[in-house]
């Protein structure tokens, strides 16, 4: 490991998101037991899924499984595609005042006709474990404690563990979504990085990426980032996850980065699957534990 954020090229070290997420989940399970002993309260997470997108159903089921592994309670709300905005807002209103619920997540994207901004902001900011509402997003932008979106938080925990001190490093975030790119850029800025955000209108993103000690890619565009984008020895975090069909008819998960090229140039890199995905879920549990603490103990804090 190197504190400069780069190391000698050759074969990149694999960043083991799955192993890290497993250890994090075990630590959270310990926190859940301690919290129960103190307050006789078990943290509860409500996950709301509208419609039946098969990929979303897989993630939602995985979330419920991991929630139970951490000793938390999981409340699933599977709503039909035809759910109205009023019905969805009414459900969130009930979850907001339910003392058994400490975290609420509405799986995105929502079916057409439902307004994700209105829905996200209907969640009590104290229960907004996705950190996507204006209160938590604003807190992050101002450098105040709050709930940080799960995927960027997971990426940051990996970076802090595998790179160390990020101060002064050049970081580039490819993708400017509210879910990942923007909050990721805010977190890296807070850690002292010099941050560049590339988006759909960015000219020559490849040249900018080649300057980056840390490259976080979150576009959902598989194969976008080739070897030529990568500074030798850089740390590459691949947030993308797409299912592609192979010649033999089977499907495979791939990221936004051409892994076999990148791994010969990067210093360290996250695989897909087994990289950022499991960290997202572990951080959701971490945020739910944090929300339960603040709701029950009235403690401030956060990351
Ligand atoms: N409000 C909201 N918050 C989210 O955090 C959110 C969302 N909506 N909508 C969908 C995306 C996607 N997402 C993933 C979570 C875990 C894996 C994951 O565990 N992936 C495994 C593989 C899973 C598999 O085999 O399909 C891995 O990368 O190793 C992937 C993707 C969270 N999202």
UniProtKB/TrEMBL annotation:
EC number assigned by the record: 1.5.1.5, 3.5.4.9
Pathway involvement of the protein, from the record: One-carbon metabolism; tetrahydrofolate interconversion
Catalytic activity: (6R)-5,10-methenyltetrahydrofolate + H2O = (6R)-10-formyltetrahydrofolate + H(+); (6R)-5,10-methylene-5,6,7,8-tetrahydrofolate + NADP(+) = (6R)-5,10-methenyltetrahydrofolate + NADPH
Entry annotated with the keyword DNA repair: no
Pfam families linked: THF_DHG_CYH (PF00763), THF_DHG_CYH_C (PF02882)
Domain of life: Bacteria
Domain Tetrahydrofolate dehydrogenase/cyclohydrolase catalytic: 15-130
Residues annotated as domain Tetrahydrofolate dehydrogenase/cyclohydrolase NAD(P)-binding: 149-294
Protein name per the record: Bifunctional protein FolD
Protein's organism: Gluconacetobacter entanii
């Amino acid at each position: 490991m190197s504190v400069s954020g780069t190391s000698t090229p050759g074969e990149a070290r694999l960043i083991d998101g799955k192993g890290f997420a497993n250890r994090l989940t075990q630590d959270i399970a310990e926190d859940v037991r301690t919290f129960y002993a103190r307050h006789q309260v078990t943290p509860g997470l409500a996950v709301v899924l509208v419609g039946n997108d098969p990929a979303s159903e897989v993630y939602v089921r995985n979330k419920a499984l991991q929630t139970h592994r951490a000793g938390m309670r999981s409340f699933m709300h599977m709503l039909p595609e035809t759910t109205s905005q009023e019905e969805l807002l009414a459900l969130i209103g009930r979850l907001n005042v339910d003392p058994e619920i400490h975290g609420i997540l509405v799986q995105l994207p929502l079916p057409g006709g439902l307004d994700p901004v209105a829905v996200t902001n209907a969640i009590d900011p104290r229960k907004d474990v996705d950190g996507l509402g204006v209160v938590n997003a604003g807190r992050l932008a101002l450098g105040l404690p709050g709930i940080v979106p799960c995927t960027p938080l997971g990426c940051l925990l990996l970076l802090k563990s595998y790179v160390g001190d990020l101060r002064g490093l050049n970081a580039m975030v490819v993708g400017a979504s509210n879910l990942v790119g923007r909050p990721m850029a805010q977190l890296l800025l807070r850690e002292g990085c010099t941050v560049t955000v590339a988006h759909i209108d960015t000219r020559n993103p490849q040249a900018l990426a080649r300057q980056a000690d840390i490259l976080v890619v979150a576009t959902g565009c598989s194969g976008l980032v080739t070897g030529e984008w990568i500074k030798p020895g850089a740390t590459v975090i691949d947030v993308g996850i797409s299912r592609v069909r192979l010649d033999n008819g089977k499907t495979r998960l791939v990221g936004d980065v051409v892994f076999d090229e990148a791994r010969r140039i990067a210093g360290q890199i996250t695989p897909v699957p087994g990289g950022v995905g499991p960290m997202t879920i572990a951080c959701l549990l971490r945020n739910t534990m944090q929300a339960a603490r603040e709701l029950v103990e009235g403690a401030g804090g956060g990351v």
